[in-house]
């Protein structure tokens, strides 16, 4: 079981001080948070991709490469790589380069994002979002697995005997998750390729994501990749921690009430009841996170959102200390003990390389 954090990289005014970090300060804070994640024993740091204010992570591989040079164990990932508006050739080359620099500690999550105007900014039509995601990933999948690719499609110029460089490290492409909050077509795509499916289990009730994950599991088995309960599933989540529950609620309330993504809507109490958001003590976070397995079955990766809504860096680092010391060890022990032997662990470069070598030997 892998545990980690993901960031959307928002630059948001702290409602308690009226101050907002500069872009420079926010970027440096994201790096500090990643380093802290490794320090406290987390497995994964993931960044989103945005091309508009108030967000700063427009170049995930640049940031992750910088972090790779300062870490040794942390898996570096994206919580969205825009498969619709990025050229699949550039994705193939950028992430293969990062994979070499990070000694294989790289995977990525394909998504369409949630910013409609990004499509025309990159010369694409939002009405073609799903077809773009399907065609672009088909090409990317081939570029990482075939040394020479000739290809033609609807959305980009053809390729004639093209070789993407560098080739994936050890001949093993980065593991891919397909992230979605609403589209069964993306769950189907993940199942078709035998890739991971990440349900960004944040804003909507669990029943919505249960349907998507159930579809993915059924189709994963249909395509012959394994049993339905062996499909590779990841979940998002949100937490705010303090040793005492009432302190957590009191401190987080102004951030929740003014957050651009969910402020001025349901109350904090309503939101925590209806979604995975947990604001409270370490034990409350443990209890709620353990309930995810009851809703979705055994899964391989849990990422938490912890650094948004204007929370100051100091507070985020304190959260990570509590998460690493009091929450993750218990969750790891409990969930690993519950997982049946036939359900795989989260893929890593080492496990994918071993699997690839075994197939060649056979």
From TrEMBL:
What InterPro entries does the record tag this protein with?
A: Bact_Lucif_Oxidored, LLM_FMN-dep_put, Luciferase-like_dom, Luciferase-like_sf
Q: Where is the Luciferase-like domain?
A: 1-294
* GO MF annotation terms: monooxygenase activity; oxidoreductase activity, acting on paired donors, with incorporation or reduction of molecular oxygen
State any GO CC term: cytosol
Keywords, ordered alphabetically: Monooxygenase, Oxidoreductase
Task: Give the domain of life.
Answer: Bacteria
One Pfam family assigned to this protein is Bac_luciferase
Q: Which Gene3D superfamilies match?
A: Luciferase-like domain (3.20.20.30)
PANTHER family, per database record: BLR5498 PROTEIN, LUCIFERASE-LIKE MONOOXYGENASE
Provide the protein name. Answer: 5,10-methylene tetrahydromethanopterin reductase
Lineage of the organism = Bacteria, Bacillati, Actinomycetota, Actinomycetes, Pseudonocardiales
């Amino acid at each position: 079981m892998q545990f980690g954090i993901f960031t959307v990289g928002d630059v948001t005014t702290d409602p308690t001080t009226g101050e907002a970090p500069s872009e420079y300060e926010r970027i440096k804070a994201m790096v500090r948070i990643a380093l802290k994640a490794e320090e406290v024993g987390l497995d994964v740091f993931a960044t989103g991709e945005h091309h508009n204010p108030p967000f700063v992570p427009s170049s995930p591989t640049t940031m992750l490469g910088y972090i790779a040079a300062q870490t040794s164990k942390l898996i570096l990932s994206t919580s969205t790589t825009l498969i619709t508006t990025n050229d699949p050739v550039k994705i193939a080359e950028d992430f293969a380069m990062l994979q070499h620099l990070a000694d294989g500690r790289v995977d990525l999550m394909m998504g369409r994002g949630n910013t409609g105007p990004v499509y025309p900014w990159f010369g694409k039509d939002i009405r073609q979002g799903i077809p773009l995601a399907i065609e672009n990933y088909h090409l990317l999948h081939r570029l990482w697995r075939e040394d020479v690719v000739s290809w033609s499609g609807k959305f980009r110029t053809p390729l004639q005997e093209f070789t993407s460089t560098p080739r994936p490290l050890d001949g093993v492409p980065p593991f891919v998750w397909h992230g979605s909050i609403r589209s069964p077509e993306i769950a189907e795509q993940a199942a078709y390729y035998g890739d991971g499916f990440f349900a960004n289990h944040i804003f909507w009730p669990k029943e919505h994501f249960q349907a998507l994950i159930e579809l993915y599991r059924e189709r994963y088995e249909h395509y012959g990749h394994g049993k339905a309960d062996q499909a590779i599933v990841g979940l998002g989540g949100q937490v705010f921690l303090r040793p005492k529950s009432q302190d957590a609620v009191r401190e987080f309330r102004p951030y929740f009430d003014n957050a651009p993504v969910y402020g001025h809507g349901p109350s904090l109490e309503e939101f925590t009841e209806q979604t995975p958001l947990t604001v409270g003590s370490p034990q409350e976070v443990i209890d709620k996170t353990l309930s995810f397995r009851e809703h979705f079955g055994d899964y391989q990766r849990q990422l938490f959102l912890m650094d948004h809504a204007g929370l100051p860096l100091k507070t985020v680092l304190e959260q990570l200390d509590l998460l690493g010391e009091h929450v993750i060890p218990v969750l790891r022990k409990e969930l690993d003990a519950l997982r049946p032997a036939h359900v795989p662990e989260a893929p890593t470069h080492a496990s994918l390389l071993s699997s690839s070598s075994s197939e060649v030997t056979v």
